[in-house]
Amino acid sequence: MSNTAYEQSKDFDQSKAEAFAGNLLQTLNSGGLTLMISIGHRTGLFDKMATLPASTSTEIADAAGLNERYIREWLGSLVTGGIVEYNGETGRYDLPAEHAAFLTRAAVQDNMASIAQFIPLLGAVEDPILECFKNGGGLSYSAFPRFHEAMADLSGQTVLPALIAKILPLADGITDKLEQGIEVADIGCGCGRALTLMAKTYPKSNFTGYDFSEEAIDGARNDAREAGLSNIRFEVEDAAKLNEDRRFDLITAFDSIHDQAKPATVLSGINNSLKDDGTFLMQDITGSSHVHKNLEHPVAPLMYAISCLHCMTVSLGADGDGLGAMWGEEKALEMLNDAGFKSVEVERLEHDILNNFYIAQKS
Questions:
Q1: Is 187 helix (H, G, I), strand (E, B) or coil?
Q2: Stretch 231-251: mean pLDDT
Q3: Rounded CA gap, 124 and 56, in Å?
Q4: Cα gap 125→102, rounded to integer Å
Q5: Do 263 and 335 meet the contact criterion of CB atoms below 8 Å apart?
Q6: Residue 149 clears pLDDT 90, i.e. is over it
Q7: pLDDT band at residue 227, thresholds of 50, 70 and 90?
Q8: What angle do the packed helices 68-80 and 14-43 form, to 10 degrees?
Q9: Is the model more confident about 227 or about 1?
Q10: What pLDDT sits at residue 1?
């Protein structure tokens, strides 16, 4: 591989160029594999293969109830990508347990396959995003018809399993208060799974979820009705219009503040809506506000890409600030302070490489 126009430069480093070209080819291969991983997750193929002995493509198709020809081509990508093992003599494919531990729903918090579905989801908006590169502005949430579904899927693996035992206890004394009975709100609640779990776990407390997506709120209300919960309600509401003066003891926000059109207004509204001794528990993307400090961040390229193709653009699409997912710890602390919070602690959980947890006290 060569590029004579560049190689004529006296400072051209051939070994550096070859190393970059090799890395770039691996990146392109990884992009293709990511699409295949998303398909494996959404079809349940990884879950099914994890329960099977080494099998032919026909046996896998029969077990999964899917088309053999598509599965065979899918397997070709995964075999050459080192995800699935193949025996050329027997024609059988096997998903090693060591790989299944990071690709199946049974892996729960370690399942990385659920993240892969964001790549095809966001790739679908490439054309309108190109227009934004030319003309500015952004996209509306309606441009992402599966986003709430994908986020609920991811939340079910990262937030829900850790919520009661690990995340809520980060706020000192809050679980005791929840057991006794307090008023709780969740901002940007989406499909409401986190709030519904809290309502089931703490029946003496009352819970209110806010999100401006009618589709997400309808789903949340249906789930609450099916669970027979009387201590929870969901409201279609722009978080920037939150005006519940000193009503809540605890307000949570799971990966939702950086998407807001007016995040500073939202944070001030949260502060005003808390009782004087109230607590705000905010989960948001880990990282620095300064790009050069994110060079060692394990998923920084992915997070910046998701931000560009969703988080930032939906904010700009609402004539917002375009804060973006990688607003970073420094900016988050600055904005929490500006919103009136007197003290803020930043915590991490061992199982979660994506998020910081901010415990902010009103007084």
A1: strand
A2: 95
A3: 33
A4: 28
A5: yes
A6: no
A7: very high
A8: 150
A9: 227
A10: 52
d(CA 159, CA 109): 9
What are the structure tokens assigned to 265, written together?
């207004």
> CB neighbours (10 Å) of residue 322?
21
- SS3 letters for 281-345? EEEEECCCCCHHHHCCCCCHHHHHHHHHHHHHHHHHHCCCCCCCCCCHHHHHHHHHHHCCCCEEE
pLDDT confidence band for 6 (50 / 70 / 90):
confident
Residue with tokens 């009618």: 214
For residue 327, give Cα distances in angstroms to 92, 110, 260, 299: 47, 25, 12, 15
- The token duo for 304 is 């910046």
Share of the chain above pLDDT 90, in %: 87
Does the predicted TM-score (pTM) go above 0.70? yes
Q: Which helix (H) or strand (E) holds 47?
A: helix 45-49
3-state secondary structure of 38: helix
The CB density around residue 233, as the number of other CB atoms within 10 Å, is 15
Q: How far apart are CA 97 and CA 64, in angstroms?
A: 18
